[in-house]
Specification:
Catalyzes the phosphorylation of the hydroxyl group of 4-methyl-5-beta-hydroxyethylthiazole (THZ). The chain has eleven helices and eleven strands. By secondary structure, the chain is α/β, with parallel strands linked by helices. The longest helix has 22 residues.
Length: 273
């Protein structure tokens, strides 16, 4: 990966996604699988929700990125995840892992730590509570949601990034992305994204698509986060009330499909810490 430049062109990554139409192989959460597929299409990439253990090893080589989301994990899912992760690691295909629910369930923590230890994970993406939990810190969460807003998230990100030699994305009121000695803050988005099911899962598959078109995975992930944040902002601006959550959800797809590289560059709120 090339060195990070704070003045990089966010919009270039969206342009690349739309030009290259990367295939993202997702083994993901059944609650939000449709939303994940549709946000990927709206961004200009191609989703494939192939999860059968008989198929994943054959399918992974066609993908530009592998997205693993453990939100509705079961025994068969777990077998598929390991087979896909092994093949993607051997082929140097980027892997994004989303540790949904790891705060509440130890077996999920163990699975994610095993993936981070034994496979080439490009990015671990979770809410603040999930990231702190994986680092062995005390945390406050309920189910899939995070109640953590602590100021030590940057330190936790750095610890995990160093321990597992991977990029760490912790999401909250602001999003922090750490790779090695570099931590970047993204301040785009809206609290309404936390009031609909699937916004985090959509972000996870979206950054997978962006990673799939660039060797600079840090910049690509930042561009993906900013894209999701901006479409959330635009969707909120378009509804008449913050209780119009159904309309808000639909507008996310509309604005993602209509998002331009110019709008991404204009509204992106990124700073290096």
């Amino acid at each position: 990966m090339s060195s990070f430049k704070s003045n990089f062109k966010l919009g270039d990554y969206l342009t690349l996604v739309r030009q290259e139409n990367p295939l993202v192989h997702a083994i993901t959460n059944h609650v939000t699988i449709n939303d994940c597929a549709n946000i990927t299409l709206a961004a200009g990439a191609s989703p494939a929700m192939c999860e059968s253990k008989e198929e994943v090893s054959d399918f992974v080589p066609f993908a530009k990125a592998l997205y693993i989301n453990i939100g509705t994990i079961n025994k068969e899912h777990k077998k598929s995840i390991y087979l896909a992760a092994e093949k993607a690691s051997r082929l140097e295909i980027p892997i994004v892992v989303d540790p949904v629910g790891a705060v509440a369930i130890k077996s999920r923590q163990d699975l994610v730590k095993d993936l981070l230890t034994n496979y080439s994970v490009s990015c671990i993406k979770g809410n603040n509570a999930e990231i702190k939990c994986l680092a062995g810190r005390r945390t406050h969460g309920k189910g899939m949601d995070s109640l953590d807003t602590g100021k030590d998230i940057q330190m936790v990100n750095s610890e995990l990034s160093e321990k597992y030699n991977t990029m760490v994305l912790s999401t909250g009121k602001t999003d922090l992305i750490t790779k090695g000695s570099t931590t970047v803050k993204v301040s785009n988005g809206t609290p309404l994204l936390g009031r609909i099911t699937g916004s985090g899962c959509m972000l996870g598959i979206l950054i997978s698509a962006f990673i799939g078109v660039s060797d600079n995975d840090l910049e690509a992930v930042i561009a993906g986060i900013v894209s999701m944040g901006i479409v959330g902002e635009l969707a909120e601006e378009s509804i008449s009330s913050t209780t119009d959550l159904g309309s808000f959800r639909v507008k996310i797809f509309d604005y993602m499909a209509a998002l331009t590289s110019e709008k991404l560059q204009e509204r992106g709120n990124v700073s290096v810490l």
